[in-house]
Structures are given as C-alpha cells and as structure tokens.
Specification:
The protein has an eight-stranded parallel sheet. It is 41% helix and 13% strand. The chain starts with 10 loop residues before the first strand and ends in an 18-residue tail after the last helix. The protein contains ten helices and eight strands. The radius of gyration is 18 Å and the shape is globular. It has a domain of 174 residues: TIM Barrel (Alpha-Beta Barrel).
Length: 269
C-alpha cells in the first residue's frame, strides 16, 4: 500500500521508552492508528519497531515516520544513519524521513543534507521526504533546492497556545502538509477553562477538543499517549465538529507559548 497522503492522525513517541513505547505502539495500532512517528533522537526506534512487528498489522498498512538528528546531517553520515534507523525499526524502508531540525547555525549547508535525503529516497530507504521545525524562509529555500521533489510535510509545534499561523499558512499555500506535534501542549490544554467548557458541551475532554481544533485547520496531529483510553479518545477526536464560535474562542487562546525551543532552534517566525 503506497500512501499518497499522511494518515489524518498519528501517535507521537517522544519520551516513550522500553516496554512503554512497545506497548503504546502496539495498542495504538490495535485501536486503528496507522501512522507512527519516531526519531533517531528519541532513542526508541528499536522499541517502536518491536511494537509494529508484534502488532500483527501488515507493514504495508502502517505509515512510519522517523527523523534524522542534526549530528547526522553531513552527507557522509545521513544515509548511513538512516540505514541504522531502518535496522532498529526492523523494516527495509520508512514511509517518511524528516530532517528533525535545520542544521544549527547552518553548519551543514541545506543543499548538502536535502540532496542527501533525495538520494536516500532514490535508493528506496524512504518513500517520502520532508522537514521539521523549518521557518518560512527555510521552507522556501528547501523548495528551491528540492525542485520537483515534493516536501511531504513540515512538522512543527502546534497547539491552542501556539497556533503558529504564519508558518502553517505559508506551508499550506506551498502545498506542504503540516504535521502538528505537541497538540496537547504537554498536558496544559487539560487545565484551560475555555477548552474545558467547550469539552462539556460535546461530552468529551479538553484534550479531544484541542486535537479537533488542530485537525480543523487541516493539520495532522500526532499526540502522544500510553493509556488505551486516551489513545482511543485522541483517535475519536477527529469526529468532533466544533462550531465557528468555538473555533474562534480557541483561536483566541494563542499566546505564542513555545515549548520546544532548544538553543539551536532557528529564529522563529
């Protein structure tokens, strides 16, 4: 099965390790998830691979994303590191390989690592390629470098407290799907009174409302959870239809609250 688009929701695996990561992936797949997101930096690719192989779901039905850490962006390292990721994931290819962060201070020229990623795609190590944490200017440069090769996604932080509108709008204008990580703002959405009030109107949780809001913007959310009831609720959130008034209320929560902001991050839009 070749995926022409990202599945509408995925399970994020950041901070999941060992048996917790294995079980979360296996349970998510049993509930109907078909998109699993991991990364070299998460140091859980092997456990994610175990969860996938033990799930009983055919590999061709599962969309696997991994991300290449910036230490591996040099042309001499990128391909080798991706092959190591495949070994850990117990697969001969991923469906999507992303540059996890732009090279800090442009130590590695973007043209070097993006063309190396193209080579990995050409060699069948990944079906699609994309980027993560790229700014507007970086997306434009990436498009120029890649030419006819599509950027499958830009994976960025998106939640009600960080709408990230400029980057989302620009990506979507360019025809690049946005994947939204941390859609629950590491649990902070559960404490928000506005989200709680809307949740009561729908008989759901504030977390489900946050995911529904992200999805309403045409963004693919990848919430992380380990509990079966939460995994199922996150999946069910795609069925929630928020009213225009509710969407506006959630839009007003945007306060530029960025959670993933390491010292090597690019200058944000």
């Amino acid at each position: 099965m070749a995926f022409d688009a990202l599945p509408p929701i995925g399970i994020g695996t950041f901070r999941l390790t060992g048996d917790i990561a294995r079980d979360a992936v296996k349970i998510a797949l049993s509930l109907g998830y078909r998109h699993i997101d991991t990364a070299q930096m998460y140091q859980n690719e092997a456990e994610v691979g175990d969860g996938i192989t033990s799930s009983g779901i055919p590999r061709r039905e599962i969309f696997i994303t991994t991300k290449i850490w910036h230490d591996n962006l040099h042309r001499s390292k990128l391909m080798h590191s991706l092959k190591q990721s495949l070994q850990r994931l117990k697969t001969d290819h991923v469906d999507l390989a992303l540059v996890h962060w732009p090279s800090p201070n442009d130590d590695v020229p973007m043209a070097d690592y993006l063309t190396a990623l193209q080579d990995a795609q050409r060699d069948g190590l990944t079906t699609h390629i994309g980027v993560s944490n790229f700014t507007i200017a970086q997306m434009d440069l990436a498009r120029d470098i890649l030419g006819e090769t599509p950027i499958f996604t830009n994976q960025i932080e998106v939640h009600p407290f960080l709408a990230n509108r400029k980057v989302v709008d620009h990506a979507q204008t360019l025809g690049i799907t946005v994947t939204g990580y941390m859609p629950l703002a590491v649990g902070r959405v559960m404490e928000d009174e506005c989200l709680q009030g809307i949740a009561r109107q729908h008989g759901v949780t504030a977390a489900e409302v946050a995911i529904a809001w992200v999805a309403s913007r045409g963004i693919v959310p990848i919430p992380s959870s380990t509990r079966p009831e939460h995994l199922k609720a996150n999946l069910d959130a795609l069925q929630i239809v928020l009213t225009p008034e509710e969407l506006i209320s959630i839009d007003r929560l945007d306060r530029g609250e960025r959670i993933a902001n390491p010292d090597f991050a690019p200058p944000w839009d």
